[in-house]
Design the sequence.
């Protein structure tokens, strides 16, 4: 009985040490994350092996694991940039990105966990200033937003690709001009719209006038052809045909052939 405490105390001590070691060695990597292993006595950051995947892992208690989110993420940025004529433009943009999983060790070693603030955001700001500086406020306000968005994406992607970051999309969400410039642009656009509408009305009226002229010319030509085709003989024949039709009528009448003008028959009726 006296020996039991002497055996139990070391066992309890060893058990406690094991629990501490296991708790220090165990790590669980969540969904959408990956881990970069840092070996304290083995050369530092592991860059020549794939990162640690999701799930439960056991590592030596003297080593460390840095967890990164490797699914697509979104970052927002509000910027003040200058247009081609030096006016200050406010630009709201966001970027969809993810770290390149196969280079996660390199990313951690060279950029660290603050890679978004150190690399991505400064690159987006620089690209936005460069791109917006090529356009006038009128272009930024109206027709060039899609082009600006595409150019910012291309310039940003060109840089961050070499920094172990995969850029999926850049979205320009809002472009804010100075109030006076915005009002001037809106007035100009309204005037241009009114001018286009006036030109459309003029063209429509001109086409309608041409239509009426063509119709009138057609009627005149038809009448001229008809007049040219009529002569006294034709008229006389028509008159005789009409007289014969009238003579067939049951109403009492006297028909005197050849007694009218131009030799046409006269019809004398009782009524």
Sequence:
């Amino acid at each position: 009985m006296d020996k039991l405490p002497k055996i139990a105390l070391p066992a309890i001590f060893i058990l406690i040490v094991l629990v501490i070691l296991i708790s220090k060695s165990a790590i669980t990597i969540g969904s959408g994350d990956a881990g970069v292993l840092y070996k304290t006595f083995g050369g530092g950051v592991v860059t020549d092996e794939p990162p640690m995947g999701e799930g439960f892992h056991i590592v030596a208690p003297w080593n460390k694991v840095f967890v990164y989110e490797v699914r697509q993420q979104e970052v927002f940025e509000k910027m003040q940039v200058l247009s081609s004529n030096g006016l200050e433009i406010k630009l709201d943009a966001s970027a969809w990105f993810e770290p390149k999983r196969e280079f996660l060790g390199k990313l951690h070693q060279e950029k660290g966990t603050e890679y978004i603030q150190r690399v991505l955001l400064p690159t987006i700001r620089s690209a936005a200033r460069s791109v917006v500086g090529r356009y006038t406020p009128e272009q930024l306000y109206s027709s060039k937003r899609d082009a600006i968005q595409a150019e910012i994406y291309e310039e940003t992607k060109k840089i961050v690709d070499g920094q172990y970051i995969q850029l999926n999309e850049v979205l320009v969400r809002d472009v804010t001009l100075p109030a006076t410039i915005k009002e001037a642009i809106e007035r100009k656009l309204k005037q241009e719209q009114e001018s286009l509408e006036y030109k459309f009305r003029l063209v429509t009226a001109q086409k309608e006038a041409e239509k009426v002229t063509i119709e009138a010319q057609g009627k005149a030509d038809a009448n001229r052809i008809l007049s040219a085709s009529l002569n006294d003989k034709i008229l006389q024949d028509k008159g005789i045909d009409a007289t014969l039709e009238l003579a067939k009528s049951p109403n009492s009448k006297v028909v005197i052939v050849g007694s009218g003008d131009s030799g046409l028959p006269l019809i004398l009726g009782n009524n």
Observations:
- The longest strand covers residues 88-99.
